[in-house]
Amino acid sequence: MSNDMFQSEQKVPYRRLEAAAQKFAKVVIPTDLERLKNHQINIEKYRRCRSWELLHKEHINAGRTVQQLRANMQDMETLFLKVKNEDIPALTKVLQPVKDMALASIGDFLEIHSKSVDELREESFFHVPNSVTEKEASYKSNSEIQIDTPFTEDVNTSESWNTLEKDLLDLNDIINEFSHLVHVSIFFTS
């Protein structure tokens, strides 16, 4: 049996995958995106309140949501490998809107938080706490003076944001690759 025959036997009509496609489009991906939106709101709130520990935890939780979203997007992508070539347009019609929604949400999340991190760095770069006066500073050695900025006080917060940002960019790449594969598949089946 040739490899092409074997592959075509494994592919199924869209109607067999329709329930899975609808579940991704109406439940799975929108739920992940809603969680990501809630993390975004919490991250902004904790940043404004300067709750660095809570901000760090929220970055970690948002990272987990991004990992789950990535896994779900990859699972959704496998549907295109299982569906018969002539049914790819039907599957695309169902999944393209949710894919576009995911891209937009990730883009918004990255844009808003990149701006807020930049603002935070600018406003806190030379911030010295009121508790350390010039007189106290003159009596202490340089190693004893602590500058109270969020990025020196809690490096974990900054690192967790960097990790989250990388995960979001990776997810964005996955979605774009997914889109490219769909368009290539449609082109070759036409």
Automatic annotation (TrEMBL):
Name this polypeptide is given: STX17-like N-terminal domain-containing protein
Any single GO BP term: vesicle-mediated transport
A GO cellular component entry from the record: membrane
Domain STX17-like N-terminal, residue spans: 15-115
Naturally occurring in which organism (per UniProt): Engystomops pustulosus
Spans traversing the lipid bilayer: none
